[in-house]
Amino acid sequence: MTRCYFNFRQGAAYSVDDEGCDFATVEDAYLAAVRAAQDMWRELLIRREDPRECAFEVRDTRGNDLFTLPFIEVLDACGRPSSAYNPKLPGAVAAALHNRQIASRALSDMSNVMKSARATLDETIGLLHKVSKIADL
After folding, report:
1. Pick from 20, 47, 79, 106: most CB atoms within 10 A?
2. pLDDT tens column, 77-132
């Protein structure tokens, strides 16, 4: 379980969440933040306040930043397909997806290098066997 604190920023105003909520994963906390932003969007408009100036800055119990959810993402998410790396995703998730892509490419490159090295090694062993036979004559 991860305790997350949803600090709220609205323009220059900043409200600190002293209670926090427990979530199984940071991703669950992100989804809860999205739902809360969706719910708050309408209320902000009714009060004639611009929701695009709002954001949740979510931290853990140690005060580490987990992610920031600008409310504009609620609007941006309408009708747009997601991509493998989207810099608007929460920092930890975006970084994880980006690092997964890099690791996958590195693993593929390493596999190709290992195949090439194995082929070179097999060729070298074959040549050494030929040299050995010639030396025995």
Report:
1. 20
2. 665 444 444 545 566 666 666 667 777 777 777 877 888 888 888 999 999 998 88
Per DSSP, 1 falls in state -
Cα–Cα distance for residue pair 18/12, rounded to 1 Å: 19
23-59 per-position pLDDT tens digit: 999 999 999 999 999 999 989 999 999 998 999 999 9
Point out the domain boundary residue: 80, 95, 129.
Answer: 80
Cβ proximity of 54 and 34 under 8 Å? no
Q: Which amino acid is at 38?
A: Q
Say what the pLDDT of residue 95 is. Answer: 63
Boundary (domain end) residue, out of 80, 101, 123? 80
Do 75 and 25 share a domain, yes or no? yes
Q: Are residues 69 and 103 in the same domain?
A: no
Run of H or E residues at 115 = helix 91-136
Question: Are both 6 and 73 inside the same structural domain?
Answer: yes
The SS3 call for residue 15 is: strand
Domain that holds residue 55: 2-80
